[in-house]
């Protein structure tokens, strides 16, 4: 008599625990949320600093085929070419560009990652201390205007 009661209690407990839907943990704040604050916090990430230097004329990126601005950009962002990893996915949104024969090359340091999937564009993700990561993709290099974070939401 005691065993059926324990078994019934365990079944009810397991149903209550495992039958519940997991809570929705999706972060759905707007870009103006204090944790993000793209439009209000000053931007000082490596990409924005480089853009400012280009605007001021104190830095110039050189275009050299076949990789365009890639090597010059890596040097300007203090990213070693030896940091390279390559990745591809047959289900990528850029599957027409990225393949086993042409993988996305990703170069990185502690705060910035530069991806070169070929096809004439460069992807950049950078992080500013205390802020969320932001990313952009470009056919060229940032040259003026808002930070890469703000440009993405524009």
**What is the N-to-C succession of helices and strands?**
HHHEEEEEH
Radius of gyration: 23 Å
- How many individual β-strands? 5
First-last Cα distance: 68 Å
| Percent of residues in beta strands | 5-15%
What is the helical fraction, as a range of percent? 25-40%
Report the biggest beta sheet as strand number plus sense, adding barrel if it closes: 5 strands, antiparallel
Content-based structural category:
alpha+beta
Count of the domains: 1
The strand line-up of the biggest sheet is 1-2-3-4-5
State the main characteristics.
disordered C terminus, 154 residues, 5-stranded antiparallel beta sheet, alpha+beta
Describe the protein in words.
Mean pLDDT is 74; it is low at 140-154. Strand 2 (104-108) and strand 3 (112-116) form a beta hairpin. The protein has 4 helices and 5 strands; from the N terminus they run αααβββββα. The chain has 154 residues and is an alpha+beta fold. A 5-stranded antiparallel sheet has the order 1-2-3-4-5. The protein has one domain (24-153).
Please give a quick description of this structure:
This protein has helices spanning 2-18, 46-56, 70-76, 148-153; strands at 85-87, 104-108, 112-116, 122-126, 134-138. By secondary structure, it is of the alpha+beta class.
């Amino acid at each position: 008599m005691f065993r059926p009661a324990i078994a019934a209690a365990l079944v009810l407990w397991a149903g209550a625990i495992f039958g519940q839907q997991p809570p929705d943990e999706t972060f759905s704040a707007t870009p103006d949320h204090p944790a993000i604050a793209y439009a209000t916090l000053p931007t000082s990430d490596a990409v924005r600093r480089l853009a400012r230097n280009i605007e001021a004329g104190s830095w110039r990126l050189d275009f050299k085929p076949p990789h365009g601005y890639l090597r010059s950009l890596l040097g300007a962002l203090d990213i070693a070419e030896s940091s390279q990893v390559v990745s591809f996915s047959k289900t990528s949104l850029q599957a027409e560009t990225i393949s086993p024969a042409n993988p996305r090359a990703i170069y990185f340091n502690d705060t910035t990652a530069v991806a070169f999937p070929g096809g004439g564009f460069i992807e950049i993700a950078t992080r500013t201390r205390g802020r969320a990561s932001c990313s952009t993709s470009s056919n060229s290099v940032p040259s003026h205007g808002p930070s890469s974070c703000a440009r993405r939401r524009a």
